[in-house]
Amino acid sequence: MMPTLDSTLRNKPSTTTEKGLGRARDILLAARGLLASEGYAGLSMRRVAQEAGMSLSNVQHYYGSKEQLLEALLLYTMDEFQAKMDHIAVAMAGRPQVERFLSTVDMFLDEITEPVTHAIFFEIWALASRHPFASSLMGKMVGRERKAIYGLVRGLNPAIDDEEYMRRSVLIVAQVEGLMLFRLDRRARPEQFASVRASVHKVLLTLATVP
User: Which residue in 140, 136, 80, 137 sits closest to 110, CA to CA?
Assistant: First the structure.
């Protein structure tokens, strides 16, 4: 299933067709490539239109501004994360809760070390310190991640109450997101990546299970 697109986009009559949704996705993929390779400064509506093989007016029909396009791109990326978490939940149905948690952690580590995804989030984190709209986007992303992690760890240890698990979910998200700063390369340095993954498992298991 294709990840959900921006709610304002879904409400456009022209996007109720498969062709309209396909064009919207093409725009987002073009924007993703430009943001990863050239940063926010190189992300213009005109460049996105060129990369997507569309007219500028067509791109603006779906996304009225650069900020709206960036928001839709981040929401699209977050929906991809959610789809992968849902897949893990289905694939690991019946497995111990702690295994589902660690499998999701591994998925996050794989994603944030993927070059394009890493570049996109790194760029948005940098923007968040200067632009209110980017700060708001990061708030949405972190909020969704915190909620997802909370659902995975809540109840792992009955001695930890729900309020404390919510606080610990914030710390777990911060740990995972913070690894982006180190530019881990799982392909060029597989042994280093495996070592870091093992250490992350240990630290996050402590946060998730030790009172």
Answer: 80
